[in-house]
UniProtKB/TrEMBL annotation, chain A:
PANTHER family: GLUTAMYL-TRNA(GLN) AMIDOTRANSFERASE SUBUNIT C, MITOCHONDRIAL (PTHR15004:SF0). Belongs to the GatC family. This is Aspartyl/glutamyl-tRNA(Asn/Gln) amidotransferase subunit C. Its EC number is 6.3.5.-. GO terms for biological process: glutaminyl-tRNAGln biosynthesis via transamidation; regulation of translational fidelity; translation. GO terms for molecular function: ATP binding; glutaminyl-tRNA synthase (glutamine-hydrolyzing) activity; transferase activity. The keyword Ligase applies. It holds the Pfam family GatC. The keyword Protein biosynthesis applies.
UniProtKB/TrEMBL annotation, chain B:
The active site is at residues 91, 166, 190. Keywords: ATP-binding, Ligase, Nucleotide-binding, Protein biosynthesis, Transferase. It is an enzyme of class 6 (ligase). This is Glutamyl-tRNA(Gln) amidotransferase subunit A.
Length: 98, 518
């Protein structure tokens, strides 16, 4: 399958990256090459092979539920791009005002 | 076989040429001080790092204060750890409270984490002096450090060549004698490949053997911090400092750490079954790399190891599987860089929505390789393609693990060249992702399986005079076997060479003749 710059634009939108037209044109054929190469995985992996998502057979690691000190507000906000009233200030999250 | 000896170079007076174990002993004995040793390394950084560019950030004042604290504790008669007062270079993907942590990315420029990674905390508790943060490919994605937003690191053996990646800064700092110890992280070879191309030692512990808490995640099921140094014993001592269970990392193994230090001191390989992996050699491997590899296997045989050949037929699918699994996990992990709570924010003009600001920030803050892998991962995880790509890759992962299980039934450790070639030239593969990815052919299987793996220097290639690394792989939680083999090789090769390989490295004083991407 060949990825078009439009396909890459759709993926970039899902990934929230505002790629330029030049980047889209450059990335599409590169991603095509990479996908053609990684497609080899379909040659071997048969239906009866269980998938491995993780190298350790761990399940449900718990710790005791106890109150511990965390970051204070000042430290937590120190790296924020913008803060206001002891909170993270973010751009508007609702749609265009109608 | 002779008893372990102190390499010749450690006998010289220059602290930057001495091993960590030797420096720690001299500090403990009062022959020198941690401050003196730290100052010597800061001077060395000052002298050579303009040419090498191993460091992104050096905090001399803080390092000297840590060193002074070690000297005070010694004067007060407090017990000191085996590496107390020894300087270290920390890969800039682990948090060190208050110090810039960029991950080689513009998106984190200026960010100072409010907490220490567990690895960092254990270094500090051991009295190890952190000199600064080392360069890497952005978010550890790459094999050459050319993907760093802050410019590439240069290989001290030849400044026009790559130092490996992603941990090229840590490896170059060791090879240029800017630090005797370093920390790397290995997701697909980012500790071992830089070690191989710089003539240094690097170990990827068993997955879960070292804590990932405070390591900025690339691919969570693959990432593992590990020790790097110029000698096998130094690496083992550092391994012992950072390894062990951490309740803050849910994938940390709650089991005793193998006695890596005893293994490094012993170097006894008599009767050890060493499996040569048939599939990791031949076409695509440089003749000089294969020659040094074969000679080293012969040395192990001469030291009493039993050499067998093993076959891992699915390793050829490891690389494609990795380049599906890694981008998938990375695209999810890097979603946290959303311009809301930390790092860069672009286009927040009071009108743009959070989503627009997010997309503009990620466009401005991420480099080409990071974008490439996020898009690839987004594709591999999207509905309709998930089974064909990510799902299939996970099955290949099972097959690779089975290959290892079969191989470890016939051998106690496996060996191969660490990389198919020696260090290539800066700029040579920058815009050819597939050629760049092929670097990690030999190292990736261990990350998929989560076992222990290391690279040890085994000489200079007769082709080009550049370092060659030998990879040793051990089953999960048998990390000590890596050091046993590494120490045996170090001893046999040191006798041949009359000293460590790095005695032969040129002084990196010349300015690099090419500047590759800003």
């Amino acid at each position: 399958m060949a990825l078009s710059p439009d396909d890459v634009a759709a993926l970039a939108q899902l990934a929230r990256i505002d790629l330029t037209p030049e980047e889209l044109a450059h990335l599409a054929p590169q991603l095509d090459d990479i996908l053609a190469s990684v497609q080899q995985v379909s040659e071997v992996a048969a239906a009866d092979i269980p998938p491995t998502s993780h190298p350790l057979p761990l399940t449900n690691v718990f710790r005791t539920d106890e109150v511990r000190p965390g970051l204070d507000r000042e430290a937590a906000l120190a790296g924020a791009p913008a803060a206001e009233d002891d909170r993270f200030r973010v751009p508007r999250i609702l749609g265009e005002a109608q | 076989m002779s008893a372990p000896t102190t390499p010749a170079a450690t006998a010289t007076g220059d602290p930057t040429r001495r091993t960590a174990v030797d420096l720690a002993a001299a500090i403990a004995a009062g022959e020198t001080s941690a401050v003196e040793v730290t100052r010597a390394h800061l001077d060395r950084i000052e002298a050579v790092d303009e040419a090498v560019h191993a460091f992104l950030h050096v905090d001399g004042e803080r390092a000297l204060a840590s060193a002074a604290e070690v000297d005070r504790r010694r004067a007060d008669g407090e017990p000191l750890g085996p590496l107390a007062g020894v300087p270290l270079a920390l890969k800039d993907v682990l948090t060190y409270a208050g110090a810039p942590t960029t991950c080689g990315s513009k998106i984190l420029e200026g960010w100072r984490p409010p907490y220490n990674a567990t690895v960092t905390q254990r270094l500090l508790d051991a009295g190890i002096v952190i000199l600064g943060k080392t360069n890497l490919d952005e978010f550890a994605m790459g094999s050459s450090t050319e993907n760093s937003a802050y410019g590439p690191t240069h290989n001290p053996w030849d400044l026009d060549r790559i130092p490996g990646g992603s941990g090229g800064g840590s490896a170059a700092a060791l090879a240029a004698f800017e630090a005797p110890l370093a920390i790397g992280t290995d997701t697909g070879g980012s500790i071992r490949q830089p070690a191989a191309v710089t003539g240094t030692v690097g170990v990827k512990p068993t997955y879960g053997g070292t804590s990932r808490y405070g390591l900025v995640a690339l691919a969570s099921s693959l990432d593992q911090p590990g020790p790097c140094a110029r000698s096998v014993l130094d690496t083992a001592l550092l391994h012992a400092v950072i390894a062990g269970h951490d309740p803050r990392d849910s994938t940390s193994i709650d089991a005793p750490v193998p006695d890596v230090v005893a293994a490094a001191r012993s170097g006894d390989v008599a009767g050890l079954r060493v499996g040569v992996v048939r599939e990791l050699g031949g076409e695509g491997y440089a003749p000089g790399v294969e020659q040094r590899f074969r000679e080293s296997v012969d040395l192990l045989a001469a030291a009493g190891a039993e050499i067998v050949e093993v076959s891992c037929p699915h390793f050829r699918y490891a690389l494609p599987a990795y380049y599906l699994i890694l981008p998938s996990e990375a695209s999810s992990n890097l979603a946290k860089f959303d311009a809301m709570r930390f790092g860069l924010r672009v286009g927040d003009d009071g009108v743009a929505s959070a989503e627009q600001v997010m997309a503009a920030t990620r466009e401005a803050g991420f480099g080409a390789e990071v974008k490439r892998r996020i898009i690839l991962g987004t594709y591999a995880l999207s509905s309709g393609y998930y089974d064909a790509y990510y799902g299939q890759a996970q099955k290949v992962r099972t097959l690779v693990i089975r290959d290892f299980e079969n191989a470890f039934a016939a051998a106690d450790v496996l060996v191969s060249p660490t990389t198919p070639t020696t260090a290539f030239r800066l700029g040579e593969r920058v815009d050819d992702p597939l050629a760049m990815y092929a670097n990690d052919l030999c190292t990736i299987p261990s990350n998929l399986a989560g076992n222990a793996s290391a690279s040890f220097p085994v000489g200079l290639s007769p082709d080009d005079g550049l370092p060659v690394g030998l990879q040793v792989i051990a089953p999960p939680l048998a990390d000590d076997r890596l050091y046993r083999v590494g120490a045996a090789l170090e001893r046999a090769l040191g006798e041949q060479w009359g000293g460590p390989l790095l005695d032969r490295i040129p002084e990196p004083t010349a300015r690099p003749s090419v500047e590759v991407q800003a």
